[in-house]
Amino acid sequence: MKAATLAEQAPALACLVSLAVGHPDLPGAYITTSQFTPNELSVQLDDPSGVEEWRKALSVSADQVFRDWIGERPSVQFRTVAFRVTFHVYATYDLAATSDGSEVV
Q: Whole-angstrom Cα distance, residue 69 to residue 86?
């Protein structure tokens, strides 16, 4: 597989600039892309409320959001294509404990 050039990553980077300008209050995230997937962005947020804010900014319907597990932690996430860029937006969270010690998702 041939590695992409920075110019090939430009659409993903420009997309982030557009989001930052159009939605300046979006929570900051740990965002990655790769020379092997130049049109994909992985957006890791601190908590599920951040996922909700990004969902709204990217005009993703609520039914596209799903719960899953990343390692040992529950997560909330969605995948979408916007501006010809594939987004994987997610956050992990801690389970809440009930008074009897059981965990609630």
A: 20
| Residues 8, 92: Cα–Cα separation, whole Å | 30
Tell me if 32 is assigned to some domain.
yes
According to DSSP H, which parts of 23-69 are helical?
A: 48-57
Confidence category of residue 69, pLDDT binned at 50, 70, 90 = very high
| 1 within some domain | no
pTM exceeds cut of 0.85: yes
Q: How far is CA 103 from the centre of its chain?
A: 25
- Is position 15 within any domain? yes
Q: Is 99 helix (H, G, I), strand (E, B) or coil?
A: coil
Side chain identity, residue 18:
S
Look at the chain and report how many structural domains it folds into. Answer: 1
Q: Is 93 left (phi over 0), alpha (psi -120 to 50) or beta?
A: beta
- Domain extent at residue 33: 6-104
pLDDT band at 102 (very low <50, low <70, confident <90, very high): low
